[in-house]
Amino acid sequence: MSSLVLGTAGHIDHGKSALVKALTGTDPDRLPEEKERGVTIELGFAQLTLPSGAVMGVVDVPGHERFVRQMVAGATGIDVVLLVVAADDGVMPQTREHLAIIDLLGIPKGVVAITKSDLADDDWIGLVRDDIERLLTGTSIQGAPIVSVSARTGAGLPDLLAAIDAVAREASARHADLPMRLPVDRVFTIAGAGTVVTGTMWSGTVKREDAVEVLPSGRAGRVRGVQVHSNAVESATAGMRVAVNIAGIDRDEIARGDILAAPGSLQVTDRFDALFTYLPGNDKPFESGARVHVHHGTREVLGRVLFMDGRGSLEPGGRALAQVRLEEPLAPRYDDRFIVRSYSPVFTIGGGTVLDVLPPRRTNLRENERELLDALASHDLSGATTGLLASRAIPMTSSEAAAALGLPRAGVADDLNKASLERFKVGTDTYYVTEEGLERLISGAIDELLRFHEAHPLATGTTAGAIRDRVDRRVAPRVFDAVLDIAAHRGLIRVTGGEVRHAQAAASALAEEDAALTSLTPILEMQGLSTATVAELADLAGVDIGVARKALTKLVSAGQVVRLGPDMHFSAKAVAEARDRIVFYLTENGTILAKDARDILGASRKYVVPLLEYFDAQGLTKREGDARKLRAR
Question: How far apart are alpha carbons 512 and 224 in whole angstroms?
Fold first, then answer.
C-alpha cells in the first residue's frame, strides 16, 4: 500500500475530475448533484496505480470559488499536487488561489497537467506553458514537470503517469514515528458497523483495537476496523488514505474538521504562535488583530492574527511572528501549516507555520520566548526543547515537552538529558526545569509565605495548595510539593504535617503553640472523660482559641488526644482506661447498655455515647439493638 496521496488543484471546469477518471477508472464525483450539474462540490477519492506498480490515494477537490473551504480540507493531506490548467482557458483566478494554498501548505512536489489539449494548437499550448512556468516561479513546486493531456482522447496520459511516478519517488514519507493523527474529511455510518470516518493519516499508525480520542471534544473511542482503498487491513500508516470504523462514538459526535488521534498526544488550544506570511498579491496592508477565517487540517474557525512586539500592520509579501487567537478551539502540532482567508469577502490572503501551540496570551515577547520561536522557526529542535523549558519556566516531563512541541518523545528526552537543567523525581516521573525557572518558583513561594506571616502573625503556616495558587497555578500540586521539598532541603522553609511556613518566620506563633501544647496536655489528662469545650480549654490554658485548635490537632496527630467531635477531646490515656473497663465488663456480662457504661465510667451520657460509638468504629464492640457486645476476633 502506498503512503502517498495525490491531490488535484485548479480552476472550475478545467477537467480535474475527468482527468482523475481517465487516470484511475473511478469517477470521483459521487453525489447526484455533482453529476447533474457537472460541478465538483465535495471531495472525491480514487486509487491510482502507477507504471512502477506503486499505488497512490487520490483526492479530487472542487474548483469553484464557493468551495475553496472544501479544497483546503482536501489539500492539507496531500503529498503530491496535480495542478490542472485547461488549454483553452489558461491560468484563471482559482488556479492562482489554489496554487497559493499549495505553496502556503508547503507541499513540495507537483506535476502540472495542461488539460483539454485537443481543443488548442501547439502554439497556444506553448503560451499556456510559459504562463504556468512564470506562475510557479518562487512557489513550493517551482520547476514541476508540465504535461499536455486530453482526458477525452487519452493523449498524453502515459506521459502524465510517468511524470507522477517520477515525482512520487522523490516525495518524502510522513512521520510514522509520531503519535497517530487523522484529520477527518468525511463521516458516515454503515449498518451493523457504526460510525466510519475517512481522511489522510498525517502521522503514526492506526490498527484494530487502538484507543483513540476525537479532538477538540475529547470524546474517547476504540478502533473497530481499518480499511485502505476499501480493503480491510491490519494497520495503516502515515500518508495513507484510510477509513476507520470507530466504536464508542456516535455519528453525531464527530464531524469533518475533527481530528482522530492517539489519546493525550495533542494539545487543544484557543491560540498558537506562528510565522505568518501575507501573500504578495494583496492590495493593502494586513492590520494586526483583523478578524479572519483560519483553516487547519480539515477544520475552519474564525480568529484574529495579532503581530508581535507592537507591529501594527504587515505589507503584502511580508512575513512576521504572530499570535493567532481562535474563536473555537483547534488541536494543532508544531510545524503544521495553516491557511488564512479574509473575513468578508472571503478569499485567501495568507497562512503560515504553527510554532508554539500553548503560548501565554501575549504579543510582547520576552527574550527567552523569542529564542524559542526563533528555534522553532529554524527547525533547531534541540534548541527548541531547551527553549521551551526556558519559556514556560515550569517543571515538565519529557512527555509533556514532546506533546507541547509535537515531536517524538525519545528525541526530546535525549535533548533534555544532555542539557544543563535542574531535574527531580515525582513518583516515577523525572521533571526538568531551568535553574531560573526553579529559582523563580522557590523565591515566589518564599515571598508568598512572608506575606502570609505578615498578614497572619498568629498563624504558624499555611497549606502548600494556597501557596501554589499564588505562585503559579500551571504547576501540578504534586510537582509544586516537590519544589517545596527542595526549598525545605535548602533550609529556606519548613514543611511539617501538611503545613508550610517560612524558616525564619512565625517564631512567636510557634512558641505560643508550643506553650499551648504544654498546657493542654495535663488539663485534658486531669479532666478524664468529662472534657471541656475547645473555648473552655483555651481559657484554662490561657491561649487564643485558634492556637488551642491547632495545638489540639497536633496532639491528635501525635496520638496523645482522641477527637470525637469538633468540640470533644479526650486524652488518649483516659480513652484507654475506659476501653479496659468496657472490655472487663463485657467479658463478665456479655452485653452492656449505655446506662451500664455510664455507671462504670462515671461520666455523663453526653460523653459515654460518643465513646461507645468510637469503640464500635474501632472494631472493639458491636451494637445489637440498645446493647453492645465484644466483636468476635
Answer: 66
